[in-house]
């Protein structure tokens, strides 16, 4: 990979994993980077004004600005559009006048119609934009990417369930459960009846960077291609942490069983995941245990509300 890649969203969840693994990538954003990230950072005030990039040499963009907190987005009339569509629209308006080799942006596998898709779910599966505000915003993101596709070479990544170490409070199931397990509070999960395709942030980072160097444009699944039950996730975290996880037996949300068809991704890049679910969870747990006294996630009023 050339050193001409910039990344928006370096203070978020996945961004730091990409920056840490690829120190030559330049961060762009309003917020400072986590203290353990040492990449170059270009501060901007708003994604609607990217004039700070006018004299910066780059030809690839990883655009991670967005919000995946479904429970909040689905309770707000415009939050999904405000966070997941408008920033990309503003950025692409600027990038249409730059000579880019590639821009990657991020949708979700939740756009696949749960009543119609077959497993493993390929990129050609039917999409249902009308499930909720979150899914609607991601489909609108994909349409925004299509609108600019004649001027900017864009890959839209349909990302599956992701997990990994972070100092943030996150809605992602595995990361959320690990934060709970590290807290002095009771640890619980809504249900163990569903199966998901869980990808570790380090693996996702490598797949994304490999996609930057392809000639492909369009949508592509990024996942492991393997379904793991939440029951297995709970068992792994209980074994690692020594803490019992209570199952609340609430009705499951979203797809009951899901895993991605990643054959397109593998044909394009030769990538394959390096972290089995046990190793990825153990790596996440060990690193977040080091941060627990500093972060004290459980003292935040938003902690533990998602799962």
Draw up the topology in text.
Layout lengths: L4 E4 L5 H8 L4 E4 L11 E3 L16 E4 L6 H4 L5 H6 L1 H10 L6 E7 L24 H15 L6 E6 L1 E3 L9 H9 L5 E3 L5 E2 L1 E3 H12 L5 E5 L5 E2 H12 L3 E3 L15 H7 L7 H19 L12
Parallel strand pairs: 1-2, 1-4, 2-3, 4-5, 5-6, 6-11, 7-10, 8-13
Antiparallel strand pairs: 9-12
Helix pairs in contact: 1-7, 6-8, 6-10, 8-10
Computed over alpha carbons, the radius of gyration is 19 Å
Q: Could you give me the name of the CATH homologous superfamily of the domain at 5-170 and 199-225 and 258-274? A: NAD(P)-binding Rossmann-like Domain
* Overall geometry: globular
The mean pLDDT is 95
In which order are the strands of the major sheet placed? 3-2-1-4-5-6-11
**Structural class of the helix and strand makeup?**
alpha/beta
CATH top level of the domain at 5-170 and 199-225 and 258-274 is Alpha Beta
Largest sheet: 7 strands, parallel
From the coordinates shown, what is the CATH architecture of the domain at 5-170 and 199-225 and 258-274?
Answer: 3-Layer(aba) Sandwich
- Please give the share of residues in helix: 25-40%
Q: Please state roughly what percent of the residues sit in beta strands, choosing from under 5%, 5-15%, 15-25%, 25-35%, 35-45% or over 45%.
A: 15-25%
- In whole angstroms, the N-to-C terminal distance is 38 Å
State the helix count: 10
Any low-confidence stretches, pLDDT <50, length ≥5?
A: none
Q: And the CATH topology of the domain at 5-170 and 199-225 and 258-274? A: Rossmann fold
Topology order in helix (H) and strand (E) letters: EHEEEHHHEHEEHEEEHEEHEHH
How many E strands?
A: 13
């Amino acid at each position: 990979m050339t050193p001409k890649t910039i990344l928006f969203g370096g203070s978020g969840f996945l961004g730091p994993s990409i920056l840490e693994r690829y120190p030559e990538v330049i961060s762009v954003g309003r917020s400072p980077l986590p203290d353990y990230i040492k990449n170059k950072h270009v501060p901007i005030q708003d994604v609607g004004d990217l004039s700070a990039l006018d004299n910066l040499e780059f030809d690839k963009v990883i655009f991670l600005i967005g919000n995946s907190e479904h429970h909040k987005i689905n309770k707000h009339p415009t939050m999904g559009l405000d966070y997941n569509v408008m920033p990309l629209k503003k950025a692409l308006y600027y990038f249409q006048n730059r000579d880019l080799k590639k821009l990657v942006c991020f949708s979700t596998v939740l756009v696949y119609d749960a009543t119609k898709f077959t497993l493993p779910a390929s990129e050609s599966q039917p999409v249902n934009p009308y499930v909720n505000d979150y899914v609607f915003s991601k489909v609108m993101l994909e349409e925004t990417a299509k609108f600019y596709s004649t001027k900017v070479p864009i890959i839209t990544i349909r990302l599956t369930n992701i997990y990994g170490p972070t100092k943030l409070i996150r809605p992602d199931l595995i990361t959320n459960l690990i934060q709970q397990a590290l807290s002095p509070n009771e640890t619980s999960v809504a249900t163990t009846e569903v199966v998901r395709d869980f990808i570790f942030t380090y693996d996702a980072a490598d797949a994304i960077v490999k996609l930057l160097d392809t000639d492909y444009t369009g949508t592509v699944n990024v996942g492991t291609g393997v379904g793991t039950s939440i029951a297995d996730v709970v068992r792994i975290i209980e074994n690692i942490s020594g803490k019992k996880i209570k199952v609340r037996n609430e009705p499951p949300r979203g797809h009951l069983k899901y895993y991605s068809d990643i054959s397109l991704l593998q044909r394009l890049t030769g990538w394959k995941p390096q972290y089995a679910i046990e190793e990825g969870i153990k790596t996440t747990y060990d690193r977040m245990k080091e941060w627990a006294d500093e972060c004290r996630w459980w003292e935040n009023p938003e902690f533990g509300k998602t799962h």
